[in-house]
Design a protein that fits this description.
Layout (H helix, E strand, L loop, with lengths): L10 E4 L5 E7 L2 E7 L6 E4 L2 H24 L7 H16 L3
Antiparallel strand pairs: 1-2, 2-3, 3-4
Length: 97
């Protein structure tokens, strides 16, 4: 996937019991920091491109799951529609749709 998002792999970095609960990072650099409990839970994303990719993650996962299911041979489904759903998810992740 081309784009200006932080390249993978991304990993979950457990931070501890304080204000910051976890971070999602790449090579030890935080992409997303999640805080909670003592304050209203929120996450801070540091790059707009990463935020778009994170927001599109459920759509990307859904499209991937449908493609895997369709490729199993047990699916009497509209492959073209599933592919279009995948293309739409990719466009969302790239900020194109």
């Amino acid at each position: 996937m081309e784009g200006k998002h932080t390249p993978g792999p991304w990993e979950i970095i457990p931070v501890g019991d304080g204000l910051v609960k976890m971070a999602i990072g790449h090579k030890g650099v935080s992409i997303l920091t999640v805080v909670g409990e003592d304050v209203t839970p929120f996450g801070a994303v540091f790059k707009e491109e990463d935020a778009r990719l994170i927001a599109a993650a459920p759509d990307l996962l859904g499209a991937c799951e449908k493609l895997v299911w369709a490729s199993s041979g047990n699916c009497d489904c509209d492959i073209a529609a599933i592919i279009e759903e995948g293309k739409a998810a990719i466009a969302k992740a790239k900020g194109e749709g």
